[in-house]
Request: fold
Amino acid sequence: MRSRNWATRLLSSWPAKVLSLAAALLLFFFYRLNRLEDRYISVPLSVSMNDEFVPASEYPRSVRITLRGESNSLFKIQENDIRAALDLSGFRSEGVFRVPVQVEKIGSALGVDPLEIQAEPSDVAVGMEKRVSKTVPITPSFRGFLEPGFELVSFDFVPPEVEIYGPARAVARVADMTTDFIELTGKNSDFASRIRLLKKESLVNFSGIDSVEFRAVVQKSLAVRTFPAIEIAVRGLPEGLQLVTPLPKGWVGVRSANSDISGFSPGPDTLSVDLSIARKSGSYTIPVTAWAPEGFVVERFEPRSLTVVLEARKDFQP
Reply:
């Protein structure tokens, strides 16, 4: 009898009781909702792809993450507890595709509840293109000057070339790779350093290495002086032949091993041509020879060769 009375009391006015319970649940829900706060962080956007196709258009390198939860729990989450990624491994044709940003909780974020996570942007449009690779030379970028009286004689890179890869059209535009600045200021001897390579195209990447060893040879500058308007001497001209026209004048650049060039002056054999190969009238192209006395070195000279025209001498009696 008592149980029947209890059931009767429980079921009496049941619509009002249900509404009261629902209202209580809503109040509890809104109370919890009002306690939630927002926190904003930026995380790197990692990209996975296959070996055949790579991104051919720019895409965000990071995304803005909105975290919503209880304030005490939110600030326990570090930026490295949230991962954002684009999965491009399934695309095996060229085109433009819209790909969702995948967000994953790790570390401290796993134990936080409630926690809402939203990425901005939530998806990304990415152009895909055939992946190609090639090897290109390295071009140095120098900064500063050596100590006065010194010069950079030679330099090389180890390795001398680097392999790059990326979308076909971007790779085709890259003819070489430049280095970060190589500092010359104050150098007065041979030196070596590890130099970072700089990307010319953001979508083109290095295969394996992104830095090379730079080696330089530095020595004292050698004084070089140019002497213009030098007569070119003729040697070995056969007796029965003569030049149709006189030879032009040349010039030489001479350096001294002890940096003192004042003791040099051009002589009759500084520039010369040897015509002993000529046997008859005609046109001959002959190399020009440069000479300097001991203690001096000819660095450069012009002309390097001459075309001469020879004819028989009318007054010559064999």
